Each structure stands twice: as C-alpha cells, then as structure tokens.
Input
Amino acid sequence: MRKILISAIVATVIAVQGAVVQSVWADTGRTDGLQKSTVVAEGQKRPQMMKKRRSQISREQAIQLLNKKYGFAQDELGRYFDNGKSYRELEQLCLYAHLSCKPLAKVVDMKGIYTGERLKMTLGLTPQKFYERSLARQSLSLAAELQLAEPYVLNCLKQGYTDRDIKMAVFLADASKSPMDDILKMRTIKVSWPDIAANIGVDVDDYRHAEAQVGNIDNGGKRSGAGFAGLRIDNPNKAKLVGILYNDYGFSKDELSRYYDEVGFNNLETFCMYAYFAKKTLGQVIAMSDKYTWEGLKLALDLTPQKFRDRAIEYQADRLFKRMDIKRAVTIKYMRLGFPMHHVNTAALLALKCGRDIESILLMKKPNNTWNEVALQLGLTLQDSQEIKDCITKSFNR
Output
C-alpha cells in the first residue's frame, strides 16, 4: 500500500470494537472526528482547508435530481427555480411536502408565512414523525441503490449510521472482502473512514474511488442539533470559548479546558449538549465516543428526537431566564409552537419597548422580513432595534 506523508498529525492507535484502528491517513480539506475544530471570527479568512466548495450542478440536473428523489413534476420544479429558489431551499421544501403528503405548491406557499420549525409543525411533522418518516424514505432509497435488504438498511440508520456511512461500508467491504457489519462497527466519532480503510488494507486509490462514489463525507459524523454556543463568536480564543461553554452548560472550567485541548471547541460543544440533555457527566459522554457515531451516541443516551427537542427547549428557556429575565413558561410556550429561541428573545425585548404582547410581535416576523422592519412596523426606530441586538450580544458574551 502506498504511504501518504502526514504533516502536523501524530499517528494514534485507537481500540475500537475489539479491533485496533490506527490513524495513518491525512485527507486534505477534512478533519478527523476529534481533531481540533476551528472557530472563525467574523471578518477573518477561513483557513484554506475549510474553503472546499460543493461542485455546481446545472438547473436541468437539479430538476432531474429532485424529480427522481421526490417525484414532483419537472415543470413545477423549474418554475420554482426560475422564481429564485435555491437548490438547497427547494430540496428542503420537497422533503417536507413528501414526508407530510402535501402538494409541493402548498408547502411553498406556507414557507412564506412560517419560519423554520413552525413550518414542520404546521405540516404535522413532529420531531418523532419527521425522524421516522425520514428514515423510512431513506432506507427504501438506499436499499434500492445498494441492492441491500430494506429492513437491514433501516436498522443501520436506526443505529445512527448515515447514508454515506452505509455506502462507504459497502464499497470498503467489496474492496477488502471483509464483512460489511464488521466494517460499519469500526465507524465511530473517533475513527474516520480513511483510518478504517487504511487499517483493513484498502489501497489509497481504491479508497479515493470509493469516496468519489459516495460523495463528500463529514468525518466528524452526523452532529444533529449542534451549534447553540458556537454562533458568531468574535475574536475567539481558548479562554473565551471555555467560558462560553461554562456559562451555557455549567461544567467546570478545569474539565472543559482539559477536554478542549483534546477534542476542540465544536466537538466539545456537542458533547456538552448531549451530556446536559441526558443529565450525564461530561466524562461519561466523551468516554462513549469510541463506540458510537454522533447520532448513535445521542440515541444511546436515550435522547429520542422528541426528548432531544424537549430538552433543547428547556435548556433555552433556562438561558433566557438567567440572562434576559424572560420567564421560562413564556419561552417554553412559544418554542413548543415552533418559534426559535432568538425570535422569542427579540420579540420579548421589543414588547418591553413598545407595549405590545409577545405573540403578536412573533407573528409579525416572516421568513422574508427582518427584525429591523418589524421594529419600524411597531413604531420603534432602528436605534431601538440596535439597542436590542446589543443587549442580546452583551448578555450572551458574544
């Protein structure tokens, strides 16, 4: 097998599922699951390795792809592209329409009224329903593509493996003549696919070919729900980032500092979230990272989609009460209706300034307008709106 030089990475040996997996491949433009993550301050340039862009597809290719995946008419899809919808946005709307068994036109119209989670909830897609229907759709598609039994694929998905994990396991099983189940079990938060391929004797060129067939792989795994703390952090450094996690999750600074050096900020943030939601110690959760993928870890902690959503709402309600003096019951009420936390926060502060009720202000915010525009509609000034933004920034130490 060809050897690839690794710069700035020390080879590590990780015991996984009774097998020894050694990190020997470095992949340009990619990080291993527990390699330090980079938080980029506003105005700074991202490192070169983070600039990898998706390959572009033509309008016709996009229409054909969405038609094949969801079954909606090509002429209808073409009209939405012509009206300015991006591929990413239209794919999400197709998914919602497919899972809710609603006409695409109806979902597109509703997107102009409802933001984010409210759209899914209005369509009847609760967290649990969305999860179950998404897996059912995904398992049927993957089973047909890979010529595997659908119940087997569904079981893999339910264990927390992504579609790309399953595809890569199929390719590497074929290349190495090893059982697919054995290969899939090697995949964890700590162990990336290049590591697995190298240690089961797959040639570098064969791995590259498999990767090209599978598509871009996030070697950190699926990190559903991550990102509460790490949004728009100015001038980040270790002390500031550890302080943010301490304020948000309550784990000791000494412990956070230790794990920060080991796993980096982004991974540590996710571990903190899972530990907090599952009511486990941070050490207990991080110790499980050599057994599960991100999604598998969440499920192993009994954080079902509905439980995860409920705990996220409780967590955000605690944050707003401690930092903004917004009653927990208010945050919980409106977040359960699908309004995001930052909307509840902004609406509550606007309500204090103008004397209106929070709910009427929340309903004024649409997907296609801004909070500045809402403030002006309430008879406030742009300066009032800026003061609210500054208050939130200060309260959350951003």
Summary: Confidence is low (pLDDT under 50) at residues 1-53, 219-227. The longest strand covers residues 13-16. Residues 278 and 301 are 6 Å apart (CA to CA). Residues 127-146 form the longest helix (20 residues).
